[in-house]
User: What shape does this take?
Amino acid sequence: MAKNQIIVTSVVSQGLGVRATAKKYGVSPAWVSTLVTRYRAEGPSAFEPRSKRPHGHARATPPAIEDRIIELRKEPLEIGADAGADTIHTHLEREGFTAPSISTIQRILNRRGFVTPAPKKRPKSSYIRFEADLPNECGQSDIRTGT
Assistant: This one.
């Protein structure tokens, strides 16, 4: 039996108090209360591991705005016009939306696969190293003729 199950069993079945159980198992009374409350509400499934990931993001761009950004990206591309983040930002503001920043629009387009990534620097294989095997094997001179 897992430690959390033993803690709940000692409170629920054996009638031991929350503080006494917390002291006995070396946990806080608040944790014991949380476990007991979960067990009473959910039953045995209360002991399954839970994700610590947040349920949502308070400042996330609403799905309706993201969908409109994608629509605004597709419309000009069909007729061959500009459909960059700046243009989309301007169209959203004209339509009365609270437009996210241009960088946020760019991230949304990247995430949804509307931007083809370009390499940011040359690959190392493209560099050709200039090296001589012996000293003075290769010479170079700068000559200026005339006046």
In short: Helices lie at 3-12, 18-25, 29-42, 63-79, 85-94, 102-111. The domain at 63-111 is CATH 1.10.10 (Arc Repressor Mutant, subunit A). The chain has a mean pLDDT of 86.
